[in-house]
Amino acid sequence: MKRKRFVDLSVAIEAALPSDPEMMIPKIRYLGHDEGAETMTLFFPGLEKKDLPEGKGWAVELVELATHSGTHLDAPWHYHPTMHNGSRALTIDEIPLEWCMGDGVVLDLRHLPDGYRVMPSDLEAALEKIDYTLKPGDIVLIMTGADRYWGTEEYLARGCGMGRDATLWILDQGIHVVGTDAWGWDRPFSFIVDEFQRTRDASIIWEGHFAGIEKAYCHIEKLTGLDQLPPFGFTFFCFPIKIKGASGGWIRAVGLIEEDE
Q1: Measured between alpha carbons, how far is 138 from 146 in angstroms, rounded to an integer?
Q2: What is the dihedral of CA 109, 110, 116, 118, to 10 degrees?
Q3: What residues have CB less than 8 Å from 46, skipping those under 6 apart?
């Protein structure tokens, strides 16, 4: 007999957290039950607050956020107008739903330092360590340990990041969706900025994202709790909110583990 266990792998969308650049920090206005009662009287002429249960009405939240706030899925349109070296890139509402559910694989790269550029050899070593071979349709999740710093400014500079070669190596295995518990799929911006200032090599800028110009793929950013999952043997779900023509969409990332009773 198997018992199903669900693991929540998403951060909550919260107002005022400094874990995003300032322009992307969510704003939430909470309308409580007292204010809700006032608005309900506008919908129902003749209604008075005292007519409602304990004088309370509905609660509503007004939210202002970017499509890349919180745990979200990036569509190929986010990286470039084209993919597959020429065809129009998919927007988030066009992502095949079959991409968004699959066998999950967690690669533990927490031993790599912050700002490190992950290479194919690092991925091969991580797979060898768990004795697993990737197959088409797997969803590969990179555990950097950055999520420990969620809610702080430090989060923006934590975790290793995926280079172009590592990204393409994963995609060559038949993978369409990948994810990370860091702020972004690439290395933290502060490390890329420093290297670019030294070298003036523009190829290092957003190289993991720009790999999507060559091969269509989606990646998830701002996951959390990947250490609650086994390396493989679970089902992963990441269906995005359907926003017309958008470059990304919020998800409730969930891992499903089936265990013996």
Answers
A1: 23
A2: 10
A3: none
Distance of alpha carbon 195 from alpha carbon 192, whole angstroms: 5
Q: Can you read off the two tokens belonging to residue 9? A: 């792998």
* Phi, psi (degrees; rounded to nearest 5) at 172: -65, -15
- Of 104, 93, 20, nearest to 248 by C-alpha is 93
> Which residues have CB under 8 Å from 234's CB, separation 6+?
7, 103, 104, 255, 256, 257, 258
CA of residue 94 relative to chain centroid, distance: 17
β-strand 82-83 against 87-88: which pairing, if any? Answer: antiparallel
Whole-number Å distance between alpha carbons of 219 and 249: 11
pLDDT tens per residue across all 261 residues of the chain: 789 999 999 999 999 999 999 999 999 999 999 999 999 999 999 999 999 999 999 999 999 999 999 999 999 999 999 999 899 999 999 999 999 999 999 999 999 999 999 999 999 999 999 999 999 999 999 999 999 999 999 999 999 999 999 999 999 999 999 999 999 999 999 999 999 999 999 999 999 999 999 999 999 999 999 999 999 999 999 999 999 999 999 999 999 999 888
Pairing state between β 177-180 and 218-221: parallel
CA angle 121, 140, 134 (to 5 degrees): 65
Domains for the chain: give ranges and CATH numbers.
27-64 (no CATH), 72-260 (3.50.30.50)
